Amino acid sequence: MSKLTSEIENRRTFAIISHPDAGKTTITEKVLLFGKQIQEAGVVKGRKGKHATSDWMEMEKERGISVTTSVMQFPYGGKVVNLLDTPGHEDFSEDTYRTLTAVDSALMVIDGAKGVEARTIKLMEVCRLRDTPIVTFMNKMDRDIRDPIELLDEVEDVLKIKCAPVSWPIGMGKQFKGVYHLLEDKTYLYKSGLGHTIQEERVIEGLDNPELDQAIGSLAADLRDELELVLGASHEFDLQEFLDGQLTPVFFGTALGNFGVDHMLDGLVEWAPSPLPRETDNRDVPATEDKFTGFVFKIQANMDPQHRDRIAFVRICSGKYQKGMKMRHVRLGRDIAVNNALTFLAGDREHLEEAYAGDIIGLHNHGTIQIGDTFTEGEELKFRGIPNFAPELFRRVRLRDPMKNKALLKGLVQLSEEGATQVFRPQNSNDLILGAVGVLQFDVVAARLKNEYKVECIYDQVSVATARWVTCDNEKMFEEFKRKNADNIALDGGDNWSYLAPTMVNLNLAMERWPDVTFLETREH
Ligand code: G4P
């Protein structure tokens, strides 16, 4: 096997999907501890809820910190793991969704006391677009959680994915004793208060081992009974079904107690796919092809006081990046020499010499790179599957100085090209409506309009509940649709027809009435 192939097949690129407070930050910290990127847990900066929202510089500073933790690469179990951060809390935005298009697998973290929550449902929908394989971690076993069987049922019912428990919890809360690993036939015993370290393993081989009864008393008999029930009612792990996104292996543990996280990581590096082939407009590109290709999935402000530029995050799809190499910016038809791509090790950003398919590199960007752009070694192709997502929050944008309407429109369109927000121009009014996936984006846009376009804007509430991009093969019918629904029809920043619905009921009715019109929740760049 060539060095290129073995490097690429060794890559595991994943992201965490979870609802705020389920434990993503805590688990990231423990994962980095196992990846030997940090000496002791407690150094990953919390990224939640601490924005001084209206202060742009403060926001840049906060986001600057998260640039360094946007991608974390570390060795684990003989593999090279890339963990991509999915902004949550106020930072939640289209970037969160689009990051999921740049990974090959995902880790779903669920708070065992709460079960499946809203944000997780939404993020799972995005994973479904590419049938991304999902590993599940049921967190917070050191608390009084819900019945584990009930939790699995909920995942199966709500998220429509089969569950295959790989580990099973013994007790919960103060009585949490550890987990039984179904595939290894071993019990791992939990000891509280050691969450900041990698603990010595306390293992008992075999389920019928009398040592187990000595260690956990009557809970051992309960465990044996419960497992019989569980095995009867749940699915066995099946690698192919996992790779097809149809089944998720489930691990139980506590991120805070750093228990079970390593079982999950072991499963992830063993089963999760190495970089997968990617679809372009004219062919599929296998990861192990010699020539470099990649696409941009995120653009982020860079917190370098010397250069206040932006960083374009490129997922390498094939071949390798080498310092100084020439890349073709396909959309602009221009070749550029790249000498200073960035990589993002935990808490530290450094220049790198080479990177392989599956890795992420950061390119400095002064406005010429957009979300969805493809880079190659000269081939004319464009990667697919890097969509815009229908916004879920809307505001009408009003100017303090009405004379600056042109500058406002230009600013909004350019910012929407960067990909974090969408702008809509209703056909029946002169309104400008801004749509976003996360609420912080409105503050970001207002601050950037002021700084970069010298326009000050105010937001008003607007009665739009959701938006869909609309298309129809029958031109005549499409014209009629647009005429009859003129109050709801708008053009987006890229001049695509959209339907702005005041309520979900309205949207459902419109979809029923116009079966030949396609209403899309995502739109390709
Ligand atoms: P997030 O990134 O998904 O939003 O979650 P985060 O890791 O910040 O965890 C949210 C809260 O849940 C934190 O407590 C964290 O300590 C706690 N937590 C995470 N994993 C576990 C676990 O396994 N068991 C228990 N009992 N708690 C857990 P907090 O009080 O909100 O924040 P902090 O002040 O401790 O940082």
UniProtKB/TrEMBL annotation:
It comes from the Bacteria. Gene3D superfamilies: P-loop containing nucleotide triphosphate hydrolases, Peptide chain release factor 3, domain III. GTP binds at residues 18-25, 85-89, 139-142. Signal peptide: none annotated. Belongs to the TRAFAC class translation factor GTPase superfamily. Classic translation factor GTPase family. PrfC subfamily. Increases the formation of ribosomal termination complexes and stimulates activities of RF-1 and RF-2. It binds guanine nucleotides and has strong preference for UGA stop codons. It may interact directly with the ribosome. The stimulation of RF-1 and RF-2 is significantly reduced by GTP and GDP, but not by GMP. This is Peptide chain release factor 3. It comes from Kangiella marina. The lineage of its organism: Bacteria, Pseudomonadati, Pseudomonadota, Gammaproteobacteria, Kangiellales.
